[in-house]
Amino acid sequence: MNKAAIDVAPLxxxxxxxxxxxxxxxxKVLRGVDLELRAGEIVALVAPSGxxxxxxxxxxxxxxxxxRGRVVVGGEEAGRLGDGERTAIxxxxxxxxxxxxxxxxxxxxxxxxxxxxMIAGVRRADARVRADALLGSFGLAHRLEHLPGRLSGxxxxxxxIARALANRPGIxxxxxxxxxxxxHTSDAVFDELLRMVRxxxxxxxxxxxxxxLAARMDRVVTLCDGRLVEMSPD
Length: 234
Ligand SMILES: Nc1ncnc2c1ncn2[C@@H]1O[C@H](COP(=O)(O)OP(=O)(O)OP(=O)(O)O)[C@@H](O)[C@H]1O
Known about the structure:
One of its GO terms (biological process) is protein localization to outer membrane. Helices cover 36% and strands 26% of the residues.
């Protein structure tokens, strides 16, 4: 992959391999994944269950290290960094959204969005302004003080997306972000996710089983025999 691309793209995976071993069995899940996620682009990852989508997102999010190959975030090659630097990059540059919201139940919606900012060193007052603005953009201005237990499924997932965007990451990684919602709510939350991601200029890699949702993203990739393959629009 050419050096200029690696320097400017928010996320580059270059020849990434990942094998799992349990007992005598080895399972080579990723066999040389190449991906360049360009600034502001939204890429759908659509592949059958068990082909390695979550594994790929974990590697891209610096939660795990590949056995081989390079993961480059914002021009920094993760494998060359110490644990502290890697954690700092993850906090500053990467937002995560999962199928389940994983909000902290004892904190309000606003506090859930403030927390990652404060961990990253943002002043409390500034974190609050950002949280209120983001939650307001998701139509949740009247839910700021609610605990997650008092929010609907769609509202909880909106808060989780707001939290992922709170630190203005360069990259959003999402694993079936609306997979736990009914069809109608899923469509509405997905609309808002795309609107917000485009508005904030974040590059996003979004795993989904939903072909209709995938078709609304800038491009679609799939995993085939452990490699990433571009799917042509039809
Ligand atoms: N920590 C692990 N140890 C052993 N095997 C693992 C581990 N993590 C994942 N696997 C295996 O690797 C393969 C890919 O798993 P992964 O969760 O990445 O798939 P996926 O495409 O995200 O699936 P789904 O769509 O069902 O969530 C699966 O066969 C899984 O059992």
